[in-house]
Predict the structure.
Amino acid sequence: MDKNIPKISLNKLLDNDDDSISLLSNALSNHGFFVITNHGISHELFNLAYEYSEKFFNLSDEIKNSYSFRESAGARGYTPFGKETALGETVPDLKEFWHHGPIIDESFDSRIMENITVNEIKNFNNVFDTLFDEMNNLGMKLLSSIALTLELSEDFFNKSTEKGNSLLRLIHYPPSNNTNMYRAREHADINLITLLIGANEPGLEVKDKSDNWIPVSSSYEDIVCNIGDMMQLVTDKRLKSTPHRVVKYKTDEMKSRYSIPFFMHPSPDTILKSVFNDGDEGVLAHDFLDERLKAIKLY
């Protein structure tokens, strides 16, 4: 683990430990990445999630493509290999992925879609419903700590995210040779915060203020967290949405790489506006997301 990317205990954060809050504050303003330990989510659930993710991506292309819905920008279900292209890039990322969101009812914004049931894999949806709830609860706790670093009320983000448009993304990077090292090219996330489950595979790198790339590693039990563009927007760039990428090093084996990030989004009807400038009119979260999805070629 690079010394510039701190490890922070969730227990200490929730106790409002001064050193932990200070570590978090520095990480958020410097490069927007940190690692959470002692988060309380079971390793067994992580193992199960990766097992079921691999089961899905091992299905035939014909079956996987039957779950692809391009008209909704892949908001739920499957997005085939080579579709998503990082903002400003022309070469697509070397990945395929699946999107899973909350279990919705009439209390959710009508623009938040229902999950898609994978008929070929028993308990697939149950596993990811459970994981979604665990990650969403963790995200809410982290947003409370982030609010404190901004001298906002602890529950500042609660109303917009309790029934937010958050999602789990199951990613498969197929085996690749060394002709293209960029499995996911340089990009920043769209959302408020991202929580990455068990980032023990090599390849994730973060760009620092001097434009150097810092390899990020952690134990399988930990969760890597970073700030997204929505949070950078509402904090007038006080909190950094940092560019990152996924690469294949020449020394790595030619094998598949799996990853499961959780993207925490507000509800589509949330107005994203500066918390420091009362005159900011802001932008609707739905419109902000829609514009970015078109820019990365998911429409």
